[in-house]
Amino acid sequence: MPKESETIKQVGAAYSAAGVSIEAGNEVVSRIGAAVKSTNRPEVLSGIGGFGGLFSMAGYTDPVLVSGADGVGTKLLVAERLGRHKSVGIDLVAMSVNDIIVSGAEPLFFLDYFATGKLEPDVAVSVVEGIAEGCRISGCALLGGETAEMPGMYAPGHYDLAGFAVGVVERDSLLTGSDISDGDLLVGIPSSGLHSNGFSLVRSLVDKLDWSEEHGLGAPLGDVLITPTRIYVQDVLRNLPLIKGLVHVTGGGFYENIPRVLPTGLGVQIDLCSWEVPPIFKLLKRLGDLSQRDMYTTFNMGIGMIAVVNKGDAGSLLENISGAVIIGSVTSQEGVVLR
Prior knowledge:
The chain is 36% helix and 21% strand. By secondary structure, it is an alpha+beta fold. The strands form two sheets. The chain has a six-stranded mixed beta sheet with strand order 6-8-5-9-7-10. A four-stranded mixed beta sheet has the order 1-4-2-3. Strand 2, helix 5 and strand 3 form a beta-alpha-beta unit. Helix 2 packs parallel to helix 5 and helix 4 runs parallel beside helix 5.
Protein backbone atom coordinates (compact mmCIF):
# COMPACT_ATOMS: atom_id res chain seq x y z
CA MET A 1 0.00 0.00 0.00
CA PRO A 2 1.53 3.40 -1.01
CA LYS A 3 2.51 5.86 1.70
CA GLU A 4 0.34 8.96 2.15
CA SER A 5 3.15 11.25 0.96
CA GLU A 6 3.51 9.20 -2.22
CA THR A 7 -0.24 9.37 -2.85
CA ILE A 8 -0.22 13.15 -2.47
CA LYS A 9 2.65 13.39 -4.95
CA GLN A 10 0.74 11.22 -7.43
CA VAL A 11 -2.39 13.34 -7.08
CA GLY A 12 -0.33 16.51 -7.51
CA ALA A 13 1.30 15.13 -10.63
CA ALA A 14 -2.07 14.18 -12.10
CA TYR A 15 -3.51 17.62 -11.32
CA SER A 16 -0.46 19.29 -12.88
CA ALA A 17 -0.91 17.19 -16.01
CA ALA A 18 -4.48 18.51 -16.19
CA GLY A 19 -3.15 22.08 -16.13
CA VAL A 20 -3.46 22.97 -12.44
CA SER A 21 -0.35 23.66 -10.38
CA ILE A 22 -0.73 23.00 -6.66
CA GLU A 23 2.82 24.28 -6.16
CA ALA A 24 2.02 27.63 -7.82
CA GLY A 25 -1.01 28.03 -5.58
CA ASN A 26 1.02 27.29 -2.48
CA GLU A 27 3.67 29.77 -3.60
CA VAL A 28 1.09 32.53 -3.95
CA VAL A 29 -0.31 31.85 -0.49
CA SER A 30 3.15 31.93 1.08
CA ARG A 31 4.07 35.19 -0.66
CA ILE A 32 0.91 37.16 0.16
CA GLY A 33 0.90 36.46 3.88
CA ALA A 34 2.64 39.68 4.92
CA ALA A 35 0.46 41.84 2.65
CA VAL A 36 -2.73 40.30 4.02
CA LYS A 37 -1.57 40.62 7.63
CA SER A 38 -0.78 44.32 7.08
CA THR A 39 -4.52 45.00 6.65
CA ASN A 40 -5.62 43.44 9.94
CA ARG A 41 -7.95 45.29 12.27
CA PRO A 42 -8.40 44.40 15.97
CA GLU A 43 -11.69 42.66 15.11
CA VAL A 44 -10.01 40.06 12.86
CA LEU A 45 -10.01 36.69 14.62
CA SER A 46 -8.57 34.45 11.93
CA GLY A 47 -5.44 34.19 9.86
CA ILE A 48 -4.86 33.35 6.21
CA GLY A 49 -5.64 29.78 5.15
CA GLY A 50 -8.82 29.06 7.07
CA PHE A 51 -12.08 27.91 5.52
CA GLY A 52 -13.76 31.14 6.55
CA GLY A 53 -12.66 34.57 7.73
CA LEU A 54 -13.64 35.46 11.28
CA PHE A 55 -14.51 39.01 12.28
CA SER A 56 -15.88 40.20 15.63
CA MET A 57 -18.80 42.66 15.68
CA ALA A 58 -18.78 44.54 18.97
CA GLY A 59 -19.43 48.04 20.22
CA TYR A 60 -22.46 48.86 18.08
CA THR A 61 -25.92 49.76 19.36
CA ASP A 62 -28.07 49.09 16.29
CA PRO A 63 -25.69 48.12 13.48
CA VAL A 64 -26.69 47.81 9.85
CA LEU A 65 -24.37 45.81 7.60
CA VAL A 66 -23.81 47.24 4.13
CA SER A 67 -22.28 45.04 1.43
CA GLY A 68 -21.00 45.60 -2.08
CA ALA A 69 -19.56 43.50 -4.88
CA ASP A 70 -17.81 44.62 -8.04
CA GLY A 71 -15.04 43.91 -10.51
CA VAL A 72 -12.57 45.87 -12.59
CA GLY A 73 -14.04 45.08 -16.00
CA THR A 74 -11.91 45.26 -19.11
CA LYS A 75 -9.39 47.53 -17.40
CA LEU A 76 -7.78 44.16 -16.69
CA LEU A 77 -6.81 44.03 -20.38
CA VAL A 78 -5.00 47.33 -19.92
CA ALA A 79 -3.08 45.85 -16.99
CA GLU A 80 -2.22 42.78 -19.07
CA ARG A 81 -1.03 44.85 -22.02
CA LEU A 82 1.17 46.99 -19.78
CA GLY A 83 2.30 44.12 -17.57
CA ARG A 84 1.37 46.17 -14.48
CA HIS A 85 -1.06 44.44 -12.17
CA LYS A 86 -0.87 45.99 -8.70
CA SER A 87 -3.06 48.99 -9.55
CA VAL A 88 -6.06 46.88 -10.57
CA GLY A 89 -5.96 45.34 -7.10
CA ILE A 90 -6.46 48.84 -5.71
CA ASP A 91 -9.24 49.37 -8.25
CA LEU A 92 -10.96 46.22 -7.08
CA VAL A 93 -11.18 47.44 -3.49
CA ALA A 94 -12.09 50.98 -4.50
CA MET A 95 -15.10 50.01 -6.58
CA SER A 96 -16.74 48.20 -3.67
CA VAL A 97 -15.78 50.39 -0.72
CA ASN A 98 -16.72 53.55 -2.61
CA ASP A 99 -20.16 52.04 -3.11
CA ILE A 100 -20.77 51.12 0.52
CA ILE A 101 -19.49 54.44 1.87
CA VAL A 102 -22.39 56.08 0.03
CA SER A 103 -24.60 54.68 2.80
CA GLY A 104 -22.33 56.15 5.45
CA ALA A 105 -20.92 52.71 6.28
CA GLU A 106 -17.35 52.18 7.45
CA PRO A 107 -15.78 49.31 5.47
CA LEU A 108 -14.87 46.47 7.82
CA PHE A 109 -13.50 43.71 5.64
CA PHE A 110 -12.93 42.70 2.04
CA LEU A 111 -12.72 39.40 0.17
CA ASP A 112 -11.36 38.83 -3.31
CA TYR A 113 -11.74 36.26 -6.09
CA PHE A 114 -8.91 35.76 -8.61
CA ALA A 115 -9.55 33.37 -11.48
CA THR A 116 -7.21 32.39 -14.30
CA GLY A 117 -6.45 29.60 -16.74
CA LYS A 118 -2.86 29.17 -15.62
CA LEU A 119 -1.68 30.66 -12.36
CA GLU A 120 1.33 32.95 -12.71
CA PRO A 121 2.51 33.58 -9.12
CA ASP A 122 4.15 36.92 -9.87
CA VAL A 123 0.94 38.29 -11.39
CA ALA A 124 -1.31 36.95 -8.64
CA VAL A 125 0.96 38.25 -5.87
CA SER A 126 1.12 41.70 -7.50
CA VAL A 127 -2.68 41.85 -7.70
CA VAL A 128 -3.11 40.80 -4.06
CA GLU A 129 -0.51 43.34 -2.94
CA GLY A 130 -2.62 45.97 -4.69
CA ILE A 131 -5.74 44.66 -2.97
CA ALA A 132 -3.96 44.89 0.38
CA GLU A 133 -2.92 48.46 -0.36
CA GLY A 134 -6.52 49.36 -1.21
CA CYS A 135 -7.63 47.80 2.05
CA ARG A 136 -5.06 49.78 4.04
CA ILE A 137 -6.15 53.03 2.37
CA SER A 138 -9.80 52.35 3.20
CA GLY A 139 -9.09 50.94 6.66
CA CYS A 140 -10.65 47.53 6.09
CA ALA A 141 -9.19 44.06 6.60
CA LEU A 142 -8.44 41.68 3.76
CA LEU A 143 -10.27 38.86 5.51
CA GLY A 144 -10.05 36.15 2.87
CA GLY A 145 -10.28 35.28 -0.78
CA GLU A 146 -10.11 32.60 -3.43
CA THR A 147 -7.60 31.86 -6.16
CA ALA A 148 -9.03 29.61 -8.87
CA GLU A 149 -6.94 28.01 -11.61
CA MET A 150 -9.26 26.78 -14.37
CA PRO A 151 -7.53 25.53 -17.52
CA GLY A 152 -9.62 26.05 -20.63
CA MET A 153 -11.81 28.70 -19.02
CA TYR A 154 -9.49 31.64 -19.71
CA ALA A 155 -7.10 32.33 -22.57
CA PRO A 156 -3.37 32.26 -21.76
CA GLY A 157 -2.28 35.38 -19.89
CA HIS A 158 -5.81 36.39 -18.90
CA TYR A 159 -7.41 36.53 -15.48
CA ASP A 160 -10.54 37.92 -13.87
CA LEU A 161 -11.21 39.63 -10.55
CA ALA A 162 -14.18 40.11 -8.28
CA GLY A 163 -14.32 41.76 -4.89
CA PHE A 164 -16.73 41.84 -1.97
CA ALA A 165 -16.80 44.44 0.81
CA VAL A 166 -18.80 44.56 4.03
CA GLY A 167 -19.23 47.67 6.16
CA VAL A 168 -21.30 48.81 9.11
CA VAL A 169 -23.22 51.91 10.11
CA GLU A 170 -25.53 52.65 13.03
CA ARG A 171 -29.12 52.62 11.81
CA ASP A 172 -29.75 56.22 12.88
CA SER A 173 -26.68 57.34 10.90
CA LEU A 174 -27.60 55.76 7.58
CA LEU A 175 -27.25 58.11 4.61
CA THR A 176 -30.46 57.65 2.64
CA GLY A 177 -30.81 61.04 0.95
CA SER A 178 -34.34 61.34 2.32
CA ASP A 179 -33.68 64.79 3.84
CA ILE A 180 -32.18 66.28 0.66
CA SER A 181 -34.15 69.38 -0.32
CA ASP A 182 -34.40 72.09 -2.96
CA GLY A 183 -31.47 74.50 -2.66
CA ASP A 184 -28.94 72.02 -1.26
CA LEU A 185 -25.52 72.20 -2.87
CA LEU A 186 -23.54 69.53 -4.72
CA VAL A 187 -19.88 69.28 -3.76
CA GLY A 188 -17.77 67.39 -6.27
CA ILE A 189 -14.71 65.46 -5.09
CA PRO A 190 -12.14 64.92 -7.85
CA SER A 191 -11.48 61.55 -9.42
CA SER A 192 -8.00 60.22 -10.15
CA GLY A 193 -8.96 59.82 -13.80
CA LEU A 194 -11.01 57.19 -15.61
CA HIS A 195 -11.33 54.99 -12.52
CA SER A 196 -12.67 51.56 -13.61
CA ASN A 197 -15.64 51.98 -15.89
CA GLY A 198 -16.09 52.54 -19.61
CA PHE A 199 -12.93 50.69 -20.58
CA SER A 200 -14.51 48.72 -23.40
CA LEU A 201 -15.10 52.05 -25.11
CA VAL A 202 -11.80 53.50 -23.95
CA ARG A 203 -9.77 50.61 -25.33
CA SER A 204 -11.55 50.76 -28.67
CA LEU A 205 -10.62 54.43 -28.98
CA VAL A 206 -6.97 54.25 -27.92
CA ASP A 207 -6.03 50.77 -29.11
CA LYS A 208 -3.98 51.95 -32.09
CA LEU A 209 -2.26 54.83 -30.28
CA ASP A 210 1.26 54.56 -28.90
CA TRP A 211 0.67 54.16 -25.17
CA SER A 212 4.21 55.28 -24.37
CA GLU A 213 3.47 58.72 -25.84
CA GLU A 214 1.72 61.51 -23.90
CA HIS A 215 -0.78 62.68 -26.53
CA GLY A 216 -1.16 65.97 -24.66
CA LEU A 217 -1.99 64.27 -21.36
CA GLY A 218 1.10 65.35 -19.43
CA ALA A 219 2.07 61.70 -18.86
CA PRO A 220 2.33 58.57 -21.03
CA LEU A 221 -1.08 57.32 -22.12
CA GLY A 222 -0.45 53.93 -20.51
CA ASP A 223 0.22 55.57 -17.13
CA VAL A 224 -3.01 57.56 -17.38
CA LEU A 225 -5.07 54.50 -18.31
CA ILE A 226 -3.74 52.33 -15.47
CA THR A 227 -4.04 54.99 -12.72
CA PRO A 228 -6.02 53.35 -9.89
CA THR A 229 -9.44 54.48 -8.74
CA ARG A 230 -9.43 57.03 -5.92
CA ILE A 231 -10.70 55.66 -2.61
CA TYR A 232 -13.00 58.16 -0.86
CA VAL A 233 -13.55 56.34 2.43
CA GLN A 234 -11.46 58.50 4.76
CA ASP A 235 -12.59 61.79 3.19
CA VAL A 236 -16.22 60.77 3.69
CA LEU A 237 -15.96 59.23 7.17
CA ARG A 238 -14.41 62.31 8.75
CA ASN A 239 -17.08 64.55 7.20
CA LEU A 240 -20.22 62.45 7.62
CA PRO A 241 -22.02 64.93 9.92
CA LEU A 242 -21.98 67.49 7.09
CA ILE A 243 -23.34 65.18 4.38
CA LYS A 244 -26.99 64.54 3.48
CA GLY A 245 -26.37 62.23 0.54
CA LEU A 246 -23.57 60.78 -1.59
CA VAL A 247 -23.25 59.79 -5.23
CA HIS A 248 -20.50 57.44 -6.44
CA VAL A 249 -20.03 58.43 -10.09
CA THR A 250 -19.32 55.15 -11.86
CA GLY A 251 -20.93 53.49 -14.89
CA GLY A 252 -23.93 55.60 -15.90
CA GLY A 253 -22.06 58.79 -15.13
CA PHE A 254 -23.97 61.86 -13.99
CA TYR A 255 -27.26 61.15 -15.69
CA GLU A 256 -27.89 57.76 -14.10
CA ASN A 257 -26.11 57.94 -10.74
CA ILE A 258 -27.23 61.29 -9.33
CA PRO A 259 -30.99 60.55 -9.42
CA ARG A 260 -30.41 57.41 -7.34
CA VAL A 261 -29.87 59.52 -4.19
CA LEU A 262 -32.59 62.14 -4.73
CA PRO A 263 -36.08 62.07 -3.21
CA THR A 264 -38.95 61.94 -5.70
CA GLY A 265 -39.70 65.29 -7.31
CA LEU A 266 -36.18 66.71 -7.07
CA GLY A 267 -33.46 67.15 -9.66
CA VAL A 268 -30.09 68.84 -10.00
CA GLN A 269 -28.45 71.53 -12.07
CA ILE A 270 -24.74 71.07 -12.76
CA ASP A 271 -22.41 73.94 -13.69
CA LEU A 272 -19.94 72.44 -16.16
CA CYS A 273 -17.62 75.45 -15.77
CA SER A 274 -17.07 74.76 -12.08
CA TRP A 275 -14.22 72.29 -12.57
CA GLU A 276 -11.55 71.50 -15.14
CA VAL A 277 -12.19 68.24 -17.00
CA PRO A 278 -8.96 66.15 -17.09
CA PRO A 279 -7.25 65.86 -20.49
CA ILE A 280 -7.93 62.11 -20.88
CA PHE A 281 -11.66 62.76 -21.23
CA LYS A 282 -11.06 65.46 -23.82
CA LEU A 283 -8.87 63.07 -25.78
CA LEU A 284 -11.52 60.34 -25.72
CA LYS A 285 -14.24 62.78 -26.77
CA ARG A 286 -12.17 63.86 -29.75
CA LEU A 287 -11.13 60.35 -30.78
CA GLY A 288 -14.69 59.04 -30.66
CA ASP A 289 -16.48 62.21 -31.75
CA LEU A 290 -18.65 61.67 -28.67
CA SER A 291 -21.48 63.97 -27.62
CA GLN A 292 -21.65 65.71 -24.26
CA ARG A 293 -24.40 63.34 -23.19
CA ASP A 294 -22.30 60.33 -24.22
CA MET A 295 -19.42 61.57 -22.10
CA TYR A 296 -21.44 62.41 -19.00
CA THR A 297 -23.37 59.14 -19.21
CA THR A 298 -20.28 56.96 -19.52
CA PHE A 299 -17.50 58.63 -17.53
CA ASN A 300 -16.96 60.51 -14.26
CA MET A 301 -15.42 63.46 -16.17
CA GLY A 302 -13.08 64.23 -13.27
CA ILE A 303 -15.65 64.05 -10.45
CA GLY A 304 -15.68 60.64 -8.77
CA MET A 305 -17.89 61.36 -5.75
CA ILE A 306 -20.58 63.98 -5.14
CA ALA A 307 -21.73 65.04 -1.68
CA VAL A 308 -25.08 66.75 -1.18
CA VAL A 309 -24.96 69.29 1.67
CA ASN A 310 -26.82 72.24 3.15
CA LYS A 311 -25.65 75.60 1.82
CA GLY A 312 -24.30 76.45 5.25
CA ASP A 313 -22.14 73.31 5.41
CA ALA A 314 -20.58 73.52 1.96
CA GLY A 315 -17.73 75.78 3.05
CA SER A 316 -16.62 73.37 5.76
CA LEU A 317 -16.60 70.47 3.34
CA LEU A 318 -14.52 72.42 0.85
CA GLU A 319 -11.98 73.17 3.60
CA ASN A 320 -11.86 69.54 4.76
CA ILE A 321 -11.44 67.79 1.40
CA SER A 322 -8.61 68.78 -0.90
CA GLY A 323 -9.76 69.67 -4.40
CA ALA A 324 -13.46 69.62 -3.56
CA VAL A 325 -15.58 72.18 -5.41
CA ILE A 326 -19.23 73.21 -5.59
CA ILE A 327 -20.51 71.90 -8.92
CA GLY A 328 -24.25 72.55 -8.72
CA SER A 329 -27.41 72.52 -6.68
CA VAL A 330 -30.60 70.58 -6.02
CA THR A 331 -33.70 71.90 -7.79
CA SER A 332 -37.45 71.32 -7.54
CA GLN A 333 -37.57 70.02 -11.12
CA GLU A 334 -36.75 66.36 -11.71
CA GLY A 335 -33.87 65.47 -13.99
CA VAL A 336 -30.17 66.18 -14.39
CA VAL A 337 -29.48 69.46 -16.19
CA LEU A 338 -25.93 70.20 -17.32
CA ARG A 339 -25.20 73.78 -18.34
